[in-house]
Amino acid sequence: MKGKNIERLIVGLSLIIIIVLFVCFFKDILVPLFSMELDGNFDEARDMLESKGWLGALCVILIEALQMVVVFIPAEFIQVSSGLSYPFHMSLILCDLGVCLGATLIFLLSRIGRIGSEKARKSQAEISFISSRTGSRSAMVLMYLLFITPIVPFGAICYYGSGTDLKYRRYILTVATGVIPSIITSNLIGTSAKAFIRNQIPVWMLILIIVVLMVLLLVGLWFLLDKLLFRGKDCTPDSATYFLFFRLVELLRKRKQRLHIDNEKLKGVEPPYILLCNHASFYDFYYVKKLVGEVNPSFVVNSHVGHTPILKRLREKSGMIPKKLFYPDTAALRMIRTLDKGYSVVIFPEGRLSVDGRCYPIVESAARIYKKHGITLVLANISGAYFANPKWRKKFLKSDIYVSVKRVIGSDEVKELPVEELEDIIVSSISCDASAEPVNRYKAGKKAKGLENILYRCADCGELYTTASDGNDLICTACGARHHLDESYLFTDAAKSIPAYYDRIKEAERAGLDLIELRTEVDTKIFTEGKRRPRKDHGECTLTKDGFTYTSESVSFTVSITKLPALAFSCNEEFELYYQKELYYFYPVKDRRQTARWALITDLLYEVRNEKE
């Protein structure tokens, strides 16, 4: 009875202290500090804390405590700011005291006030997942595991711990010691930054320290996950590597877009199945993973992802299926083996990112394979992602992104449908046109930046490489034509939209296909699987209606247009293809905007050849 009274007294006094301090200091310290936190302004936060003396130190404790209670506010900001403002040992103590104060308040809210946290309830699934993986029955042991493997916010862990039968002294001891590794890391970053600001270390050393700390943290986290939570699941989509990769992507992406998931048609569909989806942006793999929920599918990825031994090992450990773009390989066999193991497979059948917001033709259809093996097909569609992060612009714009399951075709139906009809269903289900049905409005300026890298020819005068961006306008430096993009990324004049403009370029190129002969001098990188570094070369590329030719002092080859369905490219950078199992990256020496033209001409030549055949 005496122990319970002491616990209640400690909790009650903590609550009173928090209320008093909040009333005294909230207006002058906490509000400005939170404003700095939202802006990511560490310098101002440091100056403010130093200027407040002991009140600043107290503020570190209060902010840390509040971040624990609210859960969704990241604790790293105040920890780094503390490391910038105070000696390392003092910063560590202040942050740990703040964590303990917040954990105490959570204990009080949960045990006495019966108040929980919505974020903590959402994290319960992850806590249960880790508990089932480790087989841990001890609340203290599980809390330590959760703190060491920062998968769940610290505040949510405390809400969980306070909901168990742990005594307060055991609970607070676990919290106080469990958070130390994370606090040490954040404080070391802050301390290193302070040394840099005072000219005690050079900038390269600051960067090195931060990188080393992050690498050590990730390696340690991976080791714990691999040995504790995902033991025996290596080289599958249930592996620690797979889990950690998607967790990191989620941390990077969750504040950049608002995802809207519609997977109603997926309910009741048991894996394994093949999910086919359009490919509008780089992060489509993440959107599809959120669509399928707790299922961990294997993704068919570009083989170049594993062009070095390290990357290849990471790809293998995560259970991904490598595929050489537009080149015959064993990807189909690996896909069947993955399905036989019970894992679903995700494929972006276009094989490349959309250039204008519409779907590319599927040049390597696997409909016959689906029919032969009677594989259930899930057809999905992503909208809103193209303008958020198109291949011609590096900056990501915050957007609403809609991911939905359009149709599910059962294994029996797949077997019964004719190949042509099955292909038509797949194409119609995943087809999209980002300009036909805009789902976002963008008020930001410079919307046209980078657009000249795909709209490389003026649609008005026909001149090559004279287009340029000017804020929200695409202009021609030859004829002076100007096309303005509105908030829906539509042109406000006769050009109408990016796809409509691109079609005018297509027609201009199509008219000269019979006499086409593209030549360009290139710097070349040749990637051989398993080798760490590419070979460097210098030569000339030629493209005619008969095929693609590369010639240099060391290499010379020709690929017939019948065997070149597409030429993958990166805007204003390079175009690429496989030849005899090696991947060639070609970097034009002059005007790299022409990479988009080489890709488009290849598409048109292959299309015309198919029509003739």
Describe the structure in your own words.
The protein is α/β, with parallel strands linked by helices and 613 residues long. It folds into 4 domains: 2-190, no CATH class; 240-430, Glycerol-3-phosphate (1)-acyltransferase; 451-510, no CATH class; 513-612, Pleckstrin-homology domain (PH domain)/Phosphotyrosine-binding domain (PTB) (PH-domain like). Helices cover 47% and strands 16% of the residues. It has 20 helices and 17 strands. It has helices spanning 2-39, 42-51, 54-70, 76-85, 88-111, 118-134, 139-148, 154-162, 168-178, 180-197, 203-229, 240-253, 284-292, 309-317, 331-340, 367-373, 411-416, 419-430, 498-510, 594-612, and strands at 257-262, 274-277, 298-302, 321-323, 345-347, 377-383, 399-409, 467-470, 473-476, 482-484, 517-527, 535-544, 547-552, 556-560, 568-570, 574-579, 582-588. The strands form 3 sheets. The chain has a 7-stranded mixed β-sheet, with helices on both faces. α5 (88-111) packs across α8, α5 runs antiparallel to α9 (168-178) and α7 packs antiparallel against α8 (154-162). It is globular.
Brief rundown of the structure:
By secondary structure, the chain is α/β, with parallel strands linked by helices. It contains 20 helices and 17 strands. Helices cover 47% and strands 16% of the residues.
